[in-house]
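User: I'm curious what two different proteins look like when written out as structure tokens. Can you demonstrate?

Assistant: Sure. I'll show them one after the other, since each token string lines up with its own sequence. Here's the first protein:
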Amino acid sequence: MDPLAQLEAEIVACRACPRLVAWREEVARTKRAAFRDETYWGRPVPGFGDPDAELVVIGLAPAAHGANRTGRMFTGDRSGEWLYRALWRAGYANRAESVSRDDGLVLTGAYITAPVRCAPPANKPTPEEQARCRPYLERELDLLAAARVYLALGQIGYQAAARFFGVRPRPKFAHGLEVPLPGRPGRPDRTLLCSYHVSQQNTFTGRLTEAMLDDVFARARALATDPG
């Protein structure tokens, strides 16, 4: 089994956080009325995308009735609608929507992951839960060796990535923030790029617009293709 597939199997089988296990499974049992005839995933959600990605998108955690239902990052909810449309417009996705694990969506040059793999109550994982889940993200980032740009959606994704890369001092999170990261022998430099999260709290209020998101992906593409 290749290393990413092995990591995925370990993630899906994880039961390390009792509160998150109880919540994700309760949501999967009770369901939302609109999805009452569906079988919920109800397990930790692995990363998704191209193993040779130049761009790694780092979110927060699965949504209770989104990825916790479908089993794919940012799939089946409003946040995902925004993200996958932007990935499609930027040329990273072969279609503009993601509705299920078997819908034919393919990412080329991009990979999506998160610091927390189980849906947390109120979308707020505790610091202890984040710490238990951290090794999965760290192993994943190590395995995505071709990546040159890491796009953090929101504070928690930014903090997780900055911790992994040892960013010191750590600039304050801001939309459009760029943090240079050290290169590796024989490889160009890398960049940690930030965006507001694609949550409804930001998209419904206009804090994040599609034009702003497109600009971030255009910048990510430019950084990823810079010869360095």
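Here's a second, unrelated protein for contrast:
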Amino acid sequence: MSLARQSIVVIGGSSGIGLAVARGALAAGARVTIAGRDVDRLNAARQAAPGLEIAPLDITDEGQLADCFGRAGPLDHLVVTAGALIGSSALVDLDAAAARNAIDTKLIGSLLAAKHAARVMRPGGSIGFTSGVLARKPTSHAVVKTAINAALEASVKQLAKELAPIRVYAVSPGPVDTPSWRMLDESARRAMFDKLATSLPVGFVATDDDTAQAYLFAMQARALTGAVLDLDSGALVA
């Protein structure tokens, strides 16, 4: 299944994995719209990759989602990589407001995006969520991330059945060298990734372009649905 001339929306597409997916799909001949909250980053992404269309959008606002997909018209694929940054925290120190924001953004936001995309999606199209290795590899002080990712993975099989013949899948990355780590200075960031690399079977930390390959494959694999693709550098078995 070629992506040429297909219509794709990537929510969270202004940077990182989402932008890498958008660039890959654009290079394959798709019509690609990137959506996100930060208009400046959307414009910068479009400037760097001419041909991308942009849609300012808050994934937690259902009205904005309905408007976005109403304007998008017939759709072939949706990819959701949007999420909220939330730090590690012991349960006894849990910030409830931060937890609710993370759940509203990544879990509820993904489900609402799927709800409205499904209404305009062509049969055989796909909806791709983004989970993470914590869904099945519990780690101390990460209960909110674990709960969100595990819930998304559970949703994949249920929605693959409910929304058929629309296909539903998730990609589960491990550590990824994305702009979300750029709050660290370059030397601290490199030291962190070098240390992480020694713990991974592949011996390196994936880039956003590495990770985007899973979504590009899933969009074109017409027999794939109800699956979670682990593209995690081997983190689950480390």
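A detail about the second structure: The beta strands are 7-11, 31-36, 53-56, 75-80, 121-130, 167-173, 176-177, 206-207, 227-231.
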